[in-house]
Specification:
This protein is mostly helical and 229 residues long. It has 8 helices and no strands.
Length: 229
């Protein structure tokens, strides 16, 4: 199992001042964007938005269902935003750093500009289904949803990590043998993301680097190259 060396390399490659500053700038920009959005919603006339179906106060099971729906929609929005951030912003920068450790992996095709967006859309569909499942199975579903969402996110990132380096068949073969490792990687990094300040800032970098190293190591082994443990 490549999980331990993957995590070691991921932390080693991403604990750099320039990358932390890069993430910090983006996070500040995102926070400012959210603030402007909420200010716009707060100043907009009430009749522009009608979310009556989410309003509480009906009593009984209806309030419970509405509250569950609000929570699931919020978590789903966060998961989708995180996925787009990792794919479109973090992945190109981190992938280049990780690939430098695997000179034996030569490109087989040009990296696609459409592929990341396509896999992001497919992942969004799976996240919607997972969110609906969490809503149907309250309690356990809400606890399991972050792990499921993180694992789906990691699977989507594998396609981006190997984009241009492997054929479609090779990517699918890599994924078929990485199921448990992706779940364990997601659980470890979810725990790391809960660490105040350091975890918050580095989690996107470590997650992306972890998937890159795991996928690239798997591809190198499939092609018969020897790797250090």
């Amino acid at each position: 199992m490549d999980l331990l060396p993957t995590l070691t390399l991921a932390f080693r490659d991403t604990f750099r001042a320039d990358l932390i500053i890069f993430i910090l700038r983006w996070l500040v920009g995102i926070l400012i964007g959210w603030w402007l959005l909420f200010m716009g919603l707060a100043l907009a006339p009430d009749h522009w938005f009608d979310f009556a179906f989410l309003k509480l106060g009906q009593g009984g099971w209806q309030d419970a269902v509405r509250m569950g729906l609000v929570v699931v929609l919020y978590v789903l929005a966060v998961a989708i935003a995180a996925m787009l951030f990792l794919v479109l912003v973090v992945m190109p920068k981190v992938r280049a750093l990780c690939l430098a450790r695997y000179p034996m992996l030569q490109p087989v095709a040009e990296a696609s500009l459409v592929a990341p967006i396509w896999h992001a859309l497919k992942l969004t569909g799976w996240l919607v289904l997972a969110a609906l499942g969490a809503l149907v199975v309250p309690g356990l579903g809400w606890v399991a949803f972050p792990v499921v969402a993180a694992t789906l996110n990691a699977r989507a990132l594998v396609w981006d990590a190997l984009d241009g380096l492997a054929s479609t068949a090779e990517v699918k073969q890599s994924l078929s043998g990485m199921g448990l490792e992706l779940v364990l990687l997601s659980v470890v990094l979810l725990a790391w993301a809960a660490v105040p300040v350091v975890g918050w800032l580095s989690a996107p970098l470590v997650m992306t680097a972890g998937v890159c190293h795991l996928a690239m190591r798997r591809l190198a082994r499939m092609r018969g190259f020897a790797l250090q443990a």
